[in-house]
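Recall that a protein's primary structure is simply its ordered list of amino acids. Everything else, from secondary elements to tertiary packing, is in principle encoded there. The following example makes that idea concrete.
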Amino acid sequence: MVETFIAKNIDEALDLKSKHDAIVFAGGTDLMVEYLRGSNLIAKFEKPVVFINSINELKGIKEDENNIIIGAATTFDEIIKSDLTPQVLKESASGIAGPPIRNIATIGGNICNASPSADSLPSLYAMDTVLRLKSKDSQRDIKIKDFITGVSKTTIKDDEILTHVIIPKKNYKYSFYRKIGTRKANALSKLAMCALALKENDKYRFKISFCTLGVTVTRDESIEEKFASSNIDDWKNNINSIQEAYAAIMKPRNSARSTALYRKQCALNLIKYFIEDICKK
């Protein structure tokens, strides 16, 4: 029998986690999949569980002058419906499973599960998302790219809880999101790509990220900087060079859902579609 606790606030959740070495549990949709699959993560279910889905401090979406701030226990259904949510995150959230799962699954759980095929991650990476982690004695902010280190691996400490997802406000000229799967929803991604374009310091810049092309989300800021240009049409003239640069960093693998070759070719095609589309605007 698994011992369970329901935390009323963040401090109580931290106390319970520390005292009982407990798993933090919000929607639980990812963990239940692993349990039913009988994966090596099943050892987690031998530990006590702290439910945090009743903590109001961890719910909802708000904004300040510079950021959109999403509580870690906010469900994807709430994210899709909010007027504050960036459009590209709405699009990626809409492809997650089906309505029953989106009513339960939380953005914090999707991040902390650290799956290479997590639908929300390419958008969060491209938007330079920052995560707020809280312990009993301190609080720290960390970029999402530094938080996830591998498959189901993060830098969260044993005494910490992810409390908020912070998305910097930027004036994106264009956003592009595509998921490739067996169906529009209710299917894990064979590949997903988020691409954003904005103008900063008199130059147009793109931000491109992919899931399933490596053990974490694939994004390379040095490529983005290399092809920053005062004329957006320069991207169209350099499509082959941009594709070659990304091809060199892609590390897809074969799986039951897709082959590495298919994933890589689709990713290169999506880069072309994104550039051609934005040059038409």
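DSSP finds twelve helices and 13 strands in the chain. The mean pLDDT is 91.
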